[in-house]
Amino acid sequence: MEKDFETLWKENKKRILEADPEYRKIIDSYKMNSGADWLLFALPAVVAIIILDWNPFQRELVNWLIGAFAAIVTFVLCVWIKSIISGNRSLDEVEKEIKARCKSNYEKTGKLE
Questions:
Q1: What letter would DSSP give residue 84?
Q2: What value does the mean pLDDT of the chain take?
Q3: Within its chain, how far is the Cα of 84 from the centroid?
Q4: With pLDDT > 90 as the criterion, what percentage of the chain qualifies?
Q5: Which of 57, 72, 88, 100 is the most buried (most CB within 10 A)?
Q6: How far is Cα 62 from Cα 40, in angstroms, rounded to an integer?
C-alpha cells in the first residue's frame, strides 16, 4: 500500500501542491513584487562589483572567483531575508504536511484527495 501511495503521489504531486492555497501563497511570495524586492536582489551584483573594484589580489581570476562567491552568498542571504520578512513557512514543511494529509486520506478512502 505504501508503494502504491508513493507512485500516486509522484504522478499527482504537482497538481495537488498547486491546488493548495498556502503552497501557492508561498510560491507567489518569492516573486519580485515591489521596488524593495528589486533592491534586495540587486545587492548581490553591487557586492560583486565592489569586490572586483577593491581588487584584493594580484590575480584577476582569483578576484573574479571571490566576487562570484560573494555574489552567491549575498543572494542566499537576500532570499533568506525575504522569506523572513514575508513570514511564511518553508515550502518543504508545507509539502510534507500536504503529503501527510494525502497519505492519511489515501489510507482511509483509497484516494489522494
A1: H
A2: 88
A3: 12
A4: 50
A5: 88
A6: 26
Alpha helices in 1-113 (DSSP H): 2-19, 21-29, 35-54, 60-86, 91-109
Cβ distance 47 to 70 under 8 Å? Answer: yes
The answer to whether the Cα torsion of 85, 87, 91, 92 is positive or negative is positive
Say what the pLDDT of residue 20 is. 94
Percentage, residues of the chain above pLDDT 70: 99
Question: What gap in Å lies between CA 31 and CA 45, rounded to an integer?
Answer: 18
- What is the rounded average pLDDT of the residues 9-20? 93
d(CA 85, CA 41): 14
C-alpha cell at 10: 509522484
Distance CA 70, CA 75 (A): 8
